[in-house]
């Protein structure tokens, strides 16, 4: 984490230290939540729609913060080690960028509609075999989380792997300007944020804003199966860096790297690819879509000289962020596929593919909830998922939420009503699901984060 004097901090964030006697005081780490003050930290109060961090400035100092930032227009600052700035959010972002510049690691930035967190985890696993790597934790991938991620880096970090999320135009451009990546990865273009952006073309434009912060001679690795990305790159609307190199990955053979063989098994997926000849890699994750995510990660690894032996070891040691198709088992022997962190039509279909491809002697049960923020065509998108389900490969369907009623209705045309159960009450869904599950069954949980579908999964673990 950042360890600097308050005098250093003031210079790095463009502020004025009100207590000159505290200039040599060292801070260790940065906190924006007054409930999480750590000894000698710097507290940065932020202003939101429903909160005002400046109300807790004095309390943060009393709780052990070594100093605080204070926005000039928020009235008199409390007594103590205070650095006055024009805007605390901008100061936090400036501080993160200044610290990044001082440490000067390589930066790998990853965005995309789906798969960016899994890809971030795979990239990190591969690079850690030869480098000291720092990665985005949890969902710290926005205009506040990214600078906090930078400020939590160790001084000896050699590569920072940063996830970049967005909900509207301009957000990725801001994050890329703060981090100035050496390598940028775009996993895919899906339907997430159609409500805000209106079309997949606009989503592609928003994701490609990542190139505007890319360093000269930087490398853009993108999904070549998505024609919108190639189209936007030729539009001339982006400020592309001088000498930018590109690398395309995907399922089709016109990409720079693509799978030449894929085999699913109990341990995940084993695959070969165009860039690696006959060398087979085993990914401890189910799903063809995760093989494609791995191709993006392999491209990053090759760029940084990671050997194939180290790639294999990195995949073996992969540690994933929670709720991205976690494979879990109940005490009674039911296999649970927990993919309840987020959902879009693209990721929903990928998760269904995983469920339907898995081998086993029990039932395959899909528990699917609403996909949110899809805009005016949300009912149609849910119906398409219902039509996508294969009654020969899925035994039972449970849905949760008003929008998922469209999913259940479309699926009913192929499944029959005796295999489909639609709910708007989570407790009722949970109670029936418990009675339908047996040992050796495989149950998939997939929905947008706002549906909190993992609560049903946790109930199964506790009671079945």
Q: How many strands, what sense, and barrel or not for the largest sheet? A: 6 strands, parallel
Helix content estimate: 25-40%
- Secondary-structure class: alpha/beta
Specify Rg, calculated over alpha carbons: 24 Å
CATH architecture of the largest domain: 3-Layer(aba) Sandwich
Mean pLDDT: 93
Morphology call: globular
**What is the CATH C level class of the largest domain, in words?**
Alpha Beta
CATH homologous superfamily assignment of the largest domain: Mur-like, catalytic domain
Individual helix count: 16
Order of strands across the biggest sheet?
9-10-8-11-12-13
Q: What is the strand tally?
A: 22
Question: What does this protein structure show overall?
Answer:
Helix content is 34%, strand content 20%. The two termini are 43 Å apart. By secondary structure, it is α/β, with parallel strands linked by helices.
């Amino acid at each position: 984490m950042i360890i600097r004097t308050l005098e250093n901090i003031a210079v790095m964030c463009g502020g004025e230290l009100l207590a000159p006697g505290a200039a040599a005081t060292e801070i260790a780490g940065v906190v924006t939540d007054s409930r999480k003050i750590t000894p000698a930290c710097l507290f940065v109060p932020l202003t939101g729609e429903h909160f005002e961090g400046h109300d807790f400035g004095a309390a943060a100092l009393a709780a052990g913060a070594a100093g605080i930032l204070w926005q000039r227009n928020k009235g008199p600052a409390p007594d103590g080690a205070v650095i006055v700035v024009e805007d605390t959010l901008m100061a936090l972002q400036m501080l993160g960028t200044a610290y990044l510049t001082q440490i000067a690691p390589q930066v790998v930035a990853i965005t995309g509609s789906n798969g960016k967190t899994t890809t971030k985890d795979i990239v990190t696993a591969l690079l850690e075999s030869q480098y000291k790597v720092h990665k985005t934790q949890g969902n710290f991938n926005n205009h506040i989380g990214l600078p906090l991620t930078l400020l939590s880096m160790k001084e000896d970090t050699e590569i920072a792997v940063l996830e970049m999320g967005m909900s509207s135009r301009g957000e990725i451009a801001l994050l890329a300007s703060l981090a100035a990546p050496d390598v940028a990865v775009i996993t895919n273009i899906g339907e997430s944020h159609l409500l805000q952006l209106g079309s997949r073309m606009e989503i592609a434009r928003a994701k490609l804003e990542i190139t505007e912060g890319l360093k000269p001679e930087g490398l853009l690795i993108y999904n070549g199966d998505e024609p919108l990305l190639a189209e936007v790159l030729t539009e001339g609307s982006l400020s592309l860096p001088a000498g930018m190199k590109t690398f395309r990955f995907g399922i089709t053979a016109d990409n720079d790297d693509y799978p030449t063989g894929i085999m699913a098994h109990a341990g995940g997926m084993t695959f070969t690819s165009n860039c690696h000849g006959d060398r087979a890699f085993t990914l401890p994750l189910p799903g063809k879509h995760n093989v494609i995510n791995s191709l993006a990660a392999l491209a990053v690894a090759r760029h940084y000289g990671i050997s194939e032996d180290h790639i294999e070891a990195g995949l073996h040691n992969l540690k994933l962020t929670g709720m991205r198709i976690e494979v879990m088992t109940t005490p009674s022997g039911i296999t649970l596929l927990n993919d309840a962190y987020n959902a879009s039509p693209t990721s929903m279909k990928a998760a269904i593919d995983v469920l339907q491809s898995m081998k086993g002697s029990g039932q395959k049960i899909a528990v699917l909830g609403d996909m949110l923020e899809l805009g005016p065509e949300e009912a149609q998108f849910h119906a398409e998922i219902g039509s996508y389900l294969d009654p020969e490969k899925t035994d039972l369907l449970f849905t949760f939420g008003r929008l998922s009623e469209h999913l259940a209705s479309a699926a009913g045309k192929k499944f029959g009503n005796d295999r489909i159960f639609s709910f708007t009450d989570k407790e009722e869904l949970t109670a029936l699901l418990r009675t339908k599950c047996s040992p050796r069954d495989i149950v998939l949980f997939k929905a947008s984060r706002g549906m909190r579908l993992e609560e049903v999964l946790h109930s199964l673990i506790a009671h079945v």
